[in-house]
Amino acid sequence: MVAAYHKLSDYELILQCQDGLHPKKLLFAELVHRYQPYVEKALYHLAPHWPDRADLAQEVWIRVYGRIQRLREPIKFRGWLSRIISNLFYDELRKRKRAKPFCSLDITLHSPSPTERLMTQEFYDQFRSAVASLPEAFRTTIVMREIEDLSYEEIAELTGVSLGTVKSRVFRARRSIQGQLSSYLDD
After folding, report:
1. Running DSSP on this structure, what letter comes out for residue 134?
2. Could you say which DSSP state residue 70 is in?
3. pLDDT digits over 1-44, tens only?
4. Residue in 136, 135, 180, 145 with CA at minimum distance from that of residue 166
5. CA distance linking residue 155 with residue 67, whole number of Å
6. Gap between the Cα atoms of 88 and 90, Å rounded
């Protein structure tokens, strides 16, 4: 018998992934199929220059697989998935800060000068640090708004907070990031 998992709504699919009565691997494969583009887009926006984004995406799915039973509100799967993506990214960012930076010796004809490259890298390092320093609620909200391009209404629905709270968190997160990057933004 061939299961028609592709006909299930996202909500039904997640519930069946959680109940353990169905072949979880097939259900989970359908969930990955549906949400892989979303995961890849989010990781691309968080880490556009990381060559190992595919590994990060795989780690996202490993975490989802191991924790899907703990998802209390399957209707909020996308927001929960976003938090996993964000948390994994920031975990990886912290690891990389401790590791010795890699410097490529490949230079193409159209490469920026070493000074420009250093300034750009320094800005992005400071930007990532500024975002990482935000309280988790602000960090998740700003990533959903600015990186995942979700509307304020979608964020409110996914996170379970009021529209006003979402707007306030985005405003305060932007203000904090701008304050931390003021030396770059003034130039």
Report:
1. S
2. G
3. 346 777 888 888 888 888 876 657 888 889 999 999 999 988 88
4. 145
5. 22
6. 6
- What domain range includes position 3? 1-98
Q: How many angstroms separate the Cα of 38 from the Cα of each of 35, 128, 153, 175?
A: 5, 21, 18, 27
Contact 144, 137 (CB under 8 A): no
Q: What would you report as the CA-atom Rg of the chain, rounded to the nearest whole angstrom?
A: 19
The reply to whether 90 and 123 lie within a common domain is no
Domain count, the chain: 2
Q: At what angle do helices 77-98 and 24-46 cross, to 10 degrees?
A: 60
Indicate the pTM of the whole model: 0.55
Same domain for 81 and 122, yes or no, is no
pLDDT, tens only, 41-98: 888 888 778 888 889 999 999 999 888 888 889 888 988 998 899 888 888 877 776 6
